[in-house]
Q: What sequence folds into this?
């Protein structure tokens, strides 16, 4: 009888919908280049801060040196945002880019795919594309230093 009850509780726990984690905050992240079909590595990232802000029905993702990316917040912890379709200036002279991120926060970890498409004139075919895997943790969740 005890085994049956434990099995039933286990099934109920697994069947319960997962609670979405809050995604807004500042994350300490690392970037790993996953693909690059450009003639050189146009943008290089090491470690840094990534900020996700949610105001009413708009989510913004802010990565240093990149145009602000916007999307709609979800209740499931998923993150999808894109810079304006007209593109934004990049650190490379004469080259604009459209940037996007997609991923989620799960078990306290941020996991995103970040893509940059580069143009000399937006609306024309992309010259090249770079993508990175981004992972990190929320700065607020970092353990407090021990005294």
A:
């Amino acid at each position: 009888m005890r085994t049956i009850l434990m099995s039933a509780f286990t099934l109920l726990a697994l069947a319960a919908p997962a609670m979405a984690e809050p995604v807004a905050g500042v994350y300490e992240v690392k970037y790993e280049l996953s693909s690059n079909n450009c003639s050189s590595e146009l943008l290089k990232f090491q470690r840094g801060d990534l900020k996700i802000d949610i105001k009413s029905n708009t989510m913004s993702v802010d990565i240093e040196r990149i145009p602000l990316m916007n999307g709609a917040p979800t209740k499931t912890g998923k993150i999808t945002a894109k810079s304006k379709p007209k593109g934004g200036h990049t650190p490379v002279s004469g080259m604009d880019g459209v940037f996007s991120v997609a991923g989620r926060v799960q078990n306290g970890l941020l996991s995103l795919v970040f893509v940059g498409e580069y143009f000399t004139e937006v609306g024309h075919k992309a010259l090249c594309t770079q993508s990175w895997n981004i992972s990190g943790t929320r700065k607020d969740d970092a353990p407090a230093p021990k005294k």
